[in-house]
Amino acid sequence: MANHWQCIQSPASTVLRHAAKVVSMSQFSLSVATRGEFRIQVDDLPLIFDSVNSTESVAVFTASSENFVINLRFYLQSAMSLHVKFTPLTRRAALVEWISLAMEKVMVGPHGRRMRVFKHGYQSWSETRSFGVDEREVRPLLHWLDVLQANPRNRASNKRGEFTSESYTLIRNQEHDVVLLAGQQSPFKQYVNFRSTFNPKSLARNQFQLQWRWDFGGQRLPLGQTKELDPLLFFVGQDVNELLETYLQTFKPANIKKQSLPSGWCSWYYYYTKVTGKDIEENASCAAVHKIDWQFFVLDDGYQNAIGDWLVENEKFSCGLAHIAKTIKEMGMHPGIWTAPFITMKKSKLTQEHPDWLLRQAYKDKPVLAGWNPGWGGNFFALDITHPGVQDYLRTVFSTFTKEYGFRFLKLDFVYAASLTGRPYNPAYSSAERLTLGYQIIREAAGEDTFILGCGSPISSAIGYVDAMRIGADVAPYWFDWKRAILTRDSNALSTKVAIRSILNRAQQHRNLWINDPDCLMLRDTETKLNPDERFSLINAAIITAGMGVFSDRLEALPEKIWQDIARIRELTLACDKGKAYVLDFMEREMPEIVYNTAGYLEVFNFDDAPKQKVLDLKGRLGDALPHGAKLVDVWQQVRLTVEGKQLVLRSMPPHSSRLFKIEK
Ligand code: 9PG
Known about the structure:
- By secondary structure, the chain is α+β, with helices and mostly antiparallel strands.
- It is built from 13 helices and 37 strands.
- The protein starts with a strand and ends with a strand.
């Protein structure tokens, strides 16, 4: 069947092929790495073809050594799934770092030079975008930036044509409109790291190497017992949006539809760590006076005496957190609070009293660095979630916050620290399982009716544990910081532009995995370097992708007319939440510029640094959405356009600007 994957076996090779789309994968080999005193690394282990069962359509392979046995089953349907079993036979194979499969020769489309790869970042803040295959994925200069933003176990190589991705990746042949999506499937017990390597000099860039690793992070597996790895899925098709939708829907958590879309306020992007108890009271009462429809009111970083000592307030919060929660409640909103539950700093009481709760490095008796934050005054370190003491501490902190103080919203931040490589107290957990263990403990302590937002969190293993997820880097009161980006060689440097890039490139996770949190919106026109076009590009991106709408300004300082905008943003976001957002030029450029929401909205951006005219070809999904005669009403300017002919022309869009239209047919 041409529409199914097939396994073609000859004495010389084994090829997995999707004939209709001219996609194939061949020359595969396995590698295994373990750790500890007897660590081994076996590279390029040949896979022995076992059988192909035509009724079941499954191709079976095995690989074995004196230390382990691996069994691979490829289920060949219109999508292909790969199920792998690993059995360690000796102590040398028991502490598993990773198992990897390399496909030396993957082909997407019959030929082609114009190819693009989609990199899905490891955690909330990680770079998430597409690249042309002759571009370079850059690794930041500073190691701690890599720890904070990327997956330190799957670092970019800085080589032209080599790209990492986490959990899923897409490779698109633009000349032939063929796309391959490879992605991890639940239960997300390991991290799956991809790496695709193209030869930028080759004329046939449709051929490349695709490699992926199941990352266990030094998990101890019981000897002689068979372990099933997270399955992988391979989809081929033409339409990237359709493939993503099919893929993301396969692991939709059961409780997802129940949540209504929250909105609210957060202290961070105006007050930063300088926030005081008085600021919270001032803003909460200002919100109450304006009778605004906000569910959550969130105190972010700045109340605690030290990172790790969440129940010890600093002098700015001598009124106590219980009082803060009560005040917010009295103003008719649910109180929310920020923590970074899986990290600590040297100066905290927690570290002083329990140095053994810190995760230790795999081969040294030193704590594992989780990053460096000048705002906190230095290095911070990962806690060991498998340690019973840490577990009790988490239970105490979060039951106190929720049951005693009355907080109903938890922003859990710097969550990636739970999964950092180290030598945990209990090595029976994989790095991904250490994270889910942490989330589970907090959820149990906080109860089902607490709204949990993950931030700085690995994506795959958080699915099903959080109500909402920050899906991008932090916004900032400026568009892009060239100086910082160049000096630190950090193409993902904190900025509103980078935040929008992730908002668009992760739009389809919304309501498939959780509620997307695009980060806060800032409406102020003082104390910001964002011009109105830039401010509205962030606002419009958040609206059309229908994420949570959280504002972060000093409310008293906003002009009165802004309250109408806040209400209008909410109204538009709720309307968009009834539809689905499709990024129509997904994988065509670094910053996609055309978003269509099936609820009847269209947004067009200009991310260039100069004004430009945008010409949209009305074909495919966009053609269906905008038939001849349809009207486009600019939601902010009340300007009307009528669709005529086969193109939509938006003349002179200012730099960094956007236009959000309601489509009327
Ligand atoms: C509070 C903030 C806000 C924000 C979070 C997170 O040093 N750093 O590299 C760094 C990275 C991210 C960051 C802060 C510092 O932001 O995303 O919304 O809650 O923490 O500290």
